[in-house]
What we know:
- Two copies of one chain form a homodimer.
- Chain A is mainly α.
- Chain A has 13 helices and 13 strands.
- Chain A has two domains: 1-33 and 177-341 and 370-396, Glycosyltransferase; 56-168.
- Chain A has a three-stranded antiparallel beta sheet.
- In chain A, a hairpin with a 5-residue loop joins strand 4 and strand 5.
- In chain A, helix 6 (179-196) packs antiparallel against helix 7 (202-216) and helix 11 runs parallel beside helix 13 (377-394).
- Chain A is globular.
- The A-B interface holds A 46, 48, 54-57, 107, 110, 114-118, 120, 165-170, 173-174, 237-238, 296-297, 299, 301-302, 304-305, 356, 358-360, 364-367, 370-372 and B 46, 48, 54-57, 107, 110, 114-118, 120, 165-170, 173-174, 237-238, 296-297, 299, 301-302, 304-305, 356, 358-360, 364-367, 370-372.
Amino acid sequence: MMNIDSTDRQRLSEIRDLYAENLYESVIPFWERHSIDTDHGGYLTCLERDGSVYDTDKFMWLQAREIWMFSHLYNRVRPESRWLEFASIGISFLERFGTDDKGDFYFALRQDGKPLVAPYNIYSDCFAVLAYAEYGRASGDPAMLAKAIAIHERIGKRKSDPKGIYNKQITENREIKTFGFSMIELNMAQVLMQNTGDSRYMSTISEVTESILNDFIDHENNIVYERLGADGSHPDCMEGRLLCPGHVCEVLWFLAKSTDDPELLKEFAQALKWTLERGWDRDHGGIFYYQDSEGLPTDKLESEMKLWWVHDEAIYAALLLGYLTEDEQLIEWFFRLHDWSWPRFVDSEYGEWFGYLYHNGERAKSLKGGKWKGFFHLPRFLLESIDTLDLMLETP
Amino acid sequence: MMNIDSTDRQRLSEIRDLYAENLYESVIPFWERHSIDTDHGGYLTCLERDGSVYDTDKFMWLQAREIWMFSHLYNRVRPESRWLEFASIGISFLERFGTDDKGDFYFALRQDGKPLVAPYNIYSDCFAVLAYAEYGRASGDPAMLAKAIAIHERIGKRKSDPKGIYNKQITENREIKTFGFSMIELNMAQVLMQNTGDSRYMSTISEVTESILNDFIDHENNIVYERLGADGSHPDCMEGRLLCPGHVCEVLWFLAKSTDDPELLKEFAQALKWTLERGWDRDHGGIFYYQDSEGLPTDKLESEMKLWWVHDEAIYAALLLGYLTEDEQLIEWFFRLHDWSWPRFVDSEYGEWFGYLYHNGERAKSLKGGKWKGFFHLPRFLLESIDTLDLMLETP
């Protein structure tokens, strides 16, 4: 096993306690206190620095992710009855208002459940799979697990044309596959397997692993791409050259959880190091949101901003793959990413983390939750990190 | 007439010469040299700092706007044959590849004209109206003017449901009208009237003026809104509270060009001062891209970035309305905005302007053109400013 010297051991132990305190004393209480919509069911996610609500719309990604998270805490940490209750408040809202007549999940709803944005985005359905699967196990209700499986099957049928009538891309003239979908397929397969115990999802995990290794990781140029052409190339255009280091970090630790093959783990560790080295901002620190593989301009104005979830995923990927492959460079990355992120993102006054920093690390937004930031990346990262740190600290 | 003291006169005169030099020696030559696609027709707009091409896709907004701009230079400045030729290279490309079977304009095409993104965005058609109208007069081809009128009529029929099948909003549960569409309606009416000489477009101009005065300008709270509820309210949600100062500046100078009513002009001047005071960044200078009317978080990550077009429109609106209403505060705003923008946006090494600065005024992107930045706002602003400055300097 990895040889951890006493200074590192001390630091890792302090960070473990810091993460546990942050998760249980700050992050979870913030969402328990401010996000439960006792009037209409579901969750309020547009929360200002102090938890006050600045918008009441309900975004399906975040509704489903919060159900998953409360259920996951119940399943994994301890069977705390209020976590199950908070999860069920979300599930009831989803059951009542979540889908259109065909069973596709809306993108956004009003506070009272009336739909605002049509089901154009299949990720809403994907996060619903996570929610129903994890809640199914927590509640012990087989109908919920069955629903997770049914939604997942429906996604399987829609996935060749996920946007359906809302698709604006004319794919016969340029077909581009995105990394994001492989990532969520992997996540669904892992969560379904964990909660149903059904091993048939292993084949999806193997397929996605293959696809990421062969298609998205470019071993010649040391790049992990976000997009892929139909012929397996990375088209030399803005779209084709786009990189998103946060996605890469996230998928690499998903992949690392699904294998104990040391050669595979080494490949993931290598891809992670390429991504961190390329994604690290040498001027201001932190990991870029988007990059162009050739250093050319991207079409994203927010490319150089520093996002909480990117840093959560990067910290945990470095920790997990550093631990699993005994790679000291990755443990150094873990410390560097932690040290940069902690003082900038954590709000020691009102709890939780800020979500968005400017390129230079100054705070860009005061919000704790919004249209895209909910109760998901941050608590998941803290939970995973605590467990991995415990394993590391157990070894003598 | 306005009393301009000799110091101001000197500064205005220097700025006039600076703008003329920038327009004719830097901006126009940059696009003439780098953007004409002699292989496939149309224009390349994704241009790096030095003019090199980093993406060859053709975005309909920018194709049409560049046709308008070259035609406008020909019509307004002098009948320079190469400007007409450059415009005709764009028109031929539009004629050949611009629309689908139904006559709706695509959003994006490959370099060779094959469509990439379906006609989901009616602004593509609106900019095509500007292109055909202005080119029609420049070329003297009545078929081109007829086409402008026909596309405009088609937009009139589509405008109640501009996104058609691509619409994701479920408007029965929340209907929100955007300022942007009023703005482009005004712009189309002005350009059609100017190029066809047909005064029937005056009624649109009057209607839009009324709507902006009554619906979007909130005289109680000194705010010009970007969005409007169906009942004329400004819904208290992220969408409803969104402000975009650059749009306001742009539409106010459009409106000012269409009236000589001194009371109306004073209203526009007042609305402009509210917008500039609210939109000015007191920490770093410059005008914000987006704001929330209550100071709450917006859902736009790029809200505090400083964009070239916002500053072009703000500078010119302050100049024109300052001149027309003899408002010294606005002339001060003109100087302040010019002084802030010039050293930050102008590239004295390779010509043209940078497009995107971070919140703190540092350069965010090296590009001169992209998916959204083309040959439009900047040369139009310089041209308009030179003319207005000449008028101001003529008065003794």
